[in-house]
Amino acid sequence: MDTLSYKTTCPNAQSVEKEWLVIDATDQHLGRLCSKVAKILRGKNKPCFSPNVDCGDNVIIINADKVVLTGKKWTDREYLRFTGYPGGQRVNSPLDLQKKSFNKHLKAGYNPLFIKVVKGMLPKNRLGRAIIENMHVYNGSEHPHQAQNPRVLDINTIK
Fold it and tell me: Which pairing describes strands 20-24 and 58-62: parallel, antiparallel, or unpaired?
């Protein structure tokens, strides 16, 4: 048997095929939706996955304002951040972060709640910071990425 015909290919930034996906967040649970989005962003659903290469797809999440949290998590859950100064620990609830997403001064496609949740599921290095830029979140059903010809993905079919 010819052993040279079995070569392991390592993907690099030029050989990776990236596509654009649209995910509807209507009536989806926040954590379950974000864990699937993190898997798609990272590229773990592809056969050519490599942990040191950005081989994931670009994800557009629409209807982010219709995401669901069970119980009293909208007000009782706390997300911490630190300004870097003494006494600079800040506490936000998911409801506060969701309200910030309607702020007109934020850039389009930026949703603080989804960024906070998905960023915690990605690697804590410069690759993770680059991967999070491939996610675009919009509160309504409209998005400005029609030129990329995104494919609609049913998130319930992803495991």
Answer: parallel
pLDDT digits (tens, 9 = 90+) for 61-99: 999 999 999 999 999 999 999 999 999 999 999 999 999
The CA distance from 40 to 153, in Å, is 11
Cα 102 vs. chain centroid, distance in angstroms? 18
Half-sphere exposure of 115 (CA within 13 A, CB side): 18
| Residues whose CB is less than 8 angstroms from the CB of residue 53 and which lie 6 or more positions away in sequence, other chains included | 11, 12, 13, 16, 43
Is residue 111 within 8 Å of 101, Cβ to Cβ?
Answer: yes
Return d(Cα 64, Cα 144) in angstroms, integer: 15
3-state secondary structure of 92: strand
